[in-house]
Amino acid sequence: MESMAGAVVGREREQEVLAGFVRDPAGRALLLRGDAGVGKSALLEHTVRLASGGGYRVIRAAGVETESELPFAGLHQFLYPLLPCVEELDEARRRAVEVVFGRSGSAPPSVMGLGTAVLDLLALAASRNPLLLLLDDGQWLDASSTQVCGFVGRRLAGIPVKLVVGLRSGVPSGFDTAALSELPVGPLSEAASGQLLDTHHAGLGPRIRRLVLEEAQGNPLALLELPSYVRGTERRRDLDSVFGYTGVPLSQRLQHVYGARIVSCGAAVRAELLRGALDGAGAGMAADRTRGTRYRMVDVGEAAACGLLDVDPLRGDYVFRHPLVRSTVVQTATPDERRAAHGALAHLHRDDLERRAAHLAAATVDPDEEVACALEAAAESATRRGGAVAAVAWLSRAAELSGSPKERSRRLGDAAYIAGHSGLLGQAQQLIHSETGSGDHDSPASVVASGYAALFEDGDVRSSRRQVVAAIEGIRDAGVRGPDDVLTRLVDLLLVIDQYAGDAVTWERAHELLASLGDSVSSRSRIYQDAWGDVVRRGAGLHERVERAFTGLRRPEPWDITRLGVAAYHVDTLSQYRQRIQRAVDREVETGAVADAMTMLHLIMLDQIAVGEWDEAERTGRYCLEVTTTHRHALFVHHTRAYLGLLAALRGDTGRARESQATVDAWARPRGVGFLTQIAAATGTAAALAEGDYEAAYLHASGITPPGVFTPYAHQASRTLLDLVESAVRTGRLEEARRHAAAAQDAGLPRISPRLALITYGALAMTAPDTAEAHRMYHRAETHPAAFHFPFELARIRLAHGTRVRHSQGRGAARRALLLAVEAFERLGASTWADRARAELHAAGGPQRTASADLAVLTWQERRIADLAAGGLTNKEIGERLHLSPRTVSSHLYRAFPKLGITSRAALRDALGRLPGGREG
């Protein structure tokens, strides 16, 4: 594709695009995608020349297939040359970047957190010289690095940084969904192919020239390489065997060409090439001070002379001329040669847990307990870093190399358990079957694997529960005492099943069974037992236990975060942990514990609904539905639909809500998945309330729990307290409403969670016969410290308060509460509730249009951030409180200022004070 003078041949359009890309003063990202050998590397080098002439500093990186499962391996290449700038970042950004270098023991930051830190680092470096970040073979970049590069690439407009990435067509990559501009690089035209061939191989005979052009089909690498090999072939009658006219992909033919050159090298040179190929040498990567030194090929001048290697002009290291050379080196080596090379590399990386394990796994043939232990440790590390898929492979290999049948069985069980949580349910079953061999599927590990598969794939709570109970009883009867990993997994699975079943009888039996196990049940399992079952009766002091458990998670597995997050949901303290859950989702959803990531997405959505971020909740739910559908986890698909239906009901989209209600109920009811049938009933309640059909709302709510009691193990019983009370009051069932509100107080709901406290006081206010008592309870609800975190419930209570005050004290006294209710419903997007509140406000003599209608409406998030900023909090402090980055806080304020008619932060307090109701929270 290039002439001897370095000019690119036949790529006029691509050169024009690249020239405009480099000249553009704004930061930009561009993907170059094409087949192997089509000339992407030449175009990348052309871009380097353009950028160097424009004063850019060029930083190179390359994806390496053998490192595609090592988190941040690729990102490290980009950031290593910028190490001197890292120290100039603030502490939070520096900590985030140091995770990439393995210098920090902190949990990996979220994509947003790390991406923001990288953006700041690039901006700092580019303030001295504009930067060109060049990535070749981007399809092999590890998932963690790809996500961060995509995040950064979409946000370069404001800084003088260019990112250009070469990608191989036909190879899936995280860049496929990165929404970055793309420049396709196709085959050369016939004329350009002839020009390139004649430039580099003048004097070819007509027959050979025609054969080369036909075989190359416009692929520049083939045009450059094939003629030399063909001319060096002594027996021209063997041309057919050289090209192999059998429809073999072009890359295979080129590997054959490289293979001949590799074989011609001496044994010592081939060994050097093999070690370099297996370790990613020559991929544009420098020595890594914290993760060991990458193999550096020496004494390979012979390989360079025959065109297999080039010399990196910056470092002077030998580099492979093309990725196909590396592939061919590996494929032409014998198994013994590859094992010897892996053994040498394992020694080189003896201080890098995961990289050493990867090489040991490939180097070892016979059972070796020491190697198996190293692989097990690497799997544990990978699981915590969001690489559960790699962990399954390492544990499977560790089982093969185990020194005893007991250790083999244990490691296969661990691999199956992680595979189940990674969404690899079929692989989990296969691992267990390979362990049992005889078809005995009753081992505890087999029950765990098959139980999760039956539950996730089809919502089978009945047969899976029978198997799990039998396995637990078998372990108990065998006399196991004290903590046991397999027993803990079975207990936690039983609790998951019973949570979804939502059946009082099975829960009571579970309590009896777990009581018989005594201290063998872990403290965290006891938290799940109390939170997931009946929080009304077992929730006292639970939120403190959840908080202590979260604090005690030093090196948590993803399922630990998920299960404690579910417990936090039941006591309405999710907001405390959302940032941690979001980081875990970012880490797990691609190559980690994707089944846990599905539940984490549910938790994030639930917290977004609770705090009034309904647009964000809708997006989270849609994304979760896509993930669950892709993995064919029917239980999670319908669980997600249930939450989307409930959100639709709250927003007044009753048609979509009832469609979701019917779909979820029809799937869940025959299977006995009571958790979902209760959400469906709650959706029906919310939809009826949104329409003002209080009779239907009462029927739905009382179907969840009768007035005056909270049905045991019905998780929606306490959550629909306000719905049942309000619908009962509105339909004239005052006695039932008062009985239910009193039952909430008697059950101690305010002590269990902040949301239950808010709605209990609201229910008591709605049902108080005495006006003074009602006012006292409304005041207690509206001034509760956590009220601002539950804006929908707070707005409903204010609407009821304003309505009662209008009838008892006159129109003027009611306006403030009604104004606040209208504004909250409008911000949330609860259209039918906003209409009802506006009607009450108008009846109270208030304006027909609120300030929200006169001004461009502040979103709920903008209002929250503006209130906190007016209170004197910095962007960083607001971000920590609301689980946002300071950059996001700044952008929200930037959008809020013109809506409020102000230009500075100092004017916020007065501007918010001019809105009806003044400032809140």
UniProtKB/TrEMBL annotation:
CDD domains: LuxR_C_like. SMART domains: HTH_LUXR. Residues 851-916 form the HTH luxR-type domain. One of its GO terms (biological process) is regulation of DNA-templated transcription. The keyword Transcription does not apply. One of its GO terms (cellular component) is cytoplasm. The keyword Ribosomal protein does not apply. It comes from the Bacteria. One of its GO terms (molecular function) is ATP binding. Keywords: ATP-binding, Nucleotide-binding. This is Helix-turn-helix transcriptional regulator. It comes from Streptomyces nitrosporeus. The lineage of its organism: Bacteria, Bacillati, Actinomycetota, Actinomycetes, Kitasatosporales.
